[in-house]
Amino acid sequence: MTTTFDQLAQAVLDGTPATSDDALAVLQAGDDHVLDVVAAAARLRRAFFGNTVKVNYLVNLKSGMCPEDCGYCSQALGSNADILRYSWLSTQEALEQAEAGVAGGARRVCLVSSGRGPSHRDIERVADMVGAIKAEHPQVEVCACLGLLQEGQAQRLAEAGVDAYNHNINTAASHHDAIVSTHTYADRVETVGRAQGAGLSACSGLIAGLGESDEQLVEALVALKALGSDSIPVNFLMPFDGTPAGDAWEPVNLTPLRCLKILAMARFVCPDAEIRIAGGRELHLRSMQGLALHVANSIFLGDYLTSQGQTARDDLALIADNGFVVLGADSAPAGACTAGPQPPSARQGTSGGQERASEEAGLGIRRRGAGTTLPANA
After folding, report:
1. Positive or negative CA dihedral for 270, 149, 69, 125?
2. Which tens digit of pLDDT belongs to each residue from 142-155?
């Protein structure tokens, strides 16, 4: 029997955009209809992206010490979260971190720095890093995420070889002032426009779980479609202790099934956009991560900016186990698991024990990779 969601998927494939009411219906579908929702959204995902998954890798160039007061962010003004804090990586350090992600199968490297926005000196610093990465790996896309851009900075990044610029709107315009006061929603939209005006691909997404209503989640996604965001990272709130959002956090309704419906809604509203499962996927999707890949077509490999992800080996196994292939990979990356489950000793390394197992499951603050002497999780 053809379901309402099948009919919606067919209408979208036939050229009729999903409406706000359609999106709300997907988001508010009963849990007993989640498989119908996922199956219908998967038709759109397959139509536009086949069986590929784009693998992205984050490099945190400068961590912490941000003057903005975003209540959810571990790097923001007033945050007491026990994260790594360091100033700019050198060009060589940035290249080494990027190469770890490329070796793990990343098609895009995302260079991120904390702060309100870059100075012109910062732009030149990043331009040098991009040049070094492109010289060694010309096939790899580079996405910069440096905060609010001033006039002319996007053009300089484009000249340096940057392919895309990330600046998330994070939430609906009607909810923005509830999560930050040091910049406006319009500031964020302006930066996305400046990136697009310089010919950079727009990467802009949202964070679910910031106290927004269902209608505001829909509002945010409709706005992202109107902005022309080519890549939409969907983050699920990670409640860091020591941040306003973390200290006041109570288990919100980000159940695995709810998260699946949020991703499916994004696919219906923006069927041809890259939908990326971003921060919080291990915490909130849990055992449903594989099913989510049948809706989304992109993930981050390994760790995030200040928090640990599951092991990169497990990320690559997740892709393969669900019948997908890494976009652009001629063969499985060196870290991919292709021989079935590994015994605990092989997964947990030489130290073994519950602490190591917890770290590899994607729990806690990032303590490896950029800003440390330990190898990156890639």
Report:
1. positive
2. 999 999 999 999 99
Quickly count: other Cβ atoms within 10 Å of residue 32's Cβ.
Answer: 8
**How many domains does the chain divide into?**
1
- Residue 163, in any domain of the structure: yes
Could you give the percent of the chain with pLDDT greater than 70? 89
The b/e string for 326-364 (b: 16+ C-beta within 10 A; e otherwise) is bbebeebbebbbeeeeeeeeebbeeeeeeeeeebbbbee
Contact between 205 and 178 under an 8 Å Cβ cutoff? The reply is no
Domain range spanning residue 145?
Answer: 4-328+346-360
Using 50, 70 and 90 to split pLDDT, how confident is the model at 78? Answer: confident
Q: What average pLDDT score do residues 90-104 get?
A: 97
259 is in an annotated binding site: no
> For residue 336, which of 353, 314, 351, 355 has the smallest C-alpha distance?
314
pLDDT tens-digit series, residues 18-54 = 999 999 999 999 999 999 999 999 999 999 999 999 9
Please give the mean pLDDT across all residues of the chain. 91
Percent of the chain that is helix, strand, coil (3-state, to 5): 40, 15, 45
Q: Residue 333: what pLDDT?
A: 57
Do 162 and 130 touch, CB atoms closer than 8 A?
Answer: yes
The answer to whether 270 is a known ligand-binding residue is: no
Domain assignment of residue 82, yes or no: yes
What whole-number distance in Å separates Cα of residue 295 and Cα of residue 316? 17
CATH code assigned at 30? 3.20.20.70
Read off the pLDDT of each residue in 126-140 and give the average, rounded to a whole number.
Answer: 98
Is 337 annotated in a binding site? The answer is no
Instruction: Locate 16 and state its tokens.
Output: 């009729």
Question: Is residue 366 in a domain?
Answer: no
Tell me the backbone φ, ψ of residue 208, rounded to 5 degrees. Answer: -90, 140
Residue 145 labeled ligand binder: no
Supply the DSSP symbol for 235.
E
Task: Please say whether the beta carbons of 279 and 235 come within 8 A.
Answer: yes
- List b or e across 192-207, with b for residues whose CB sees 16 or more CB atoms inside 10 angstroms: bbbbbebebbbbbbbb
Answer yes or no: is 130 within a domain. yes
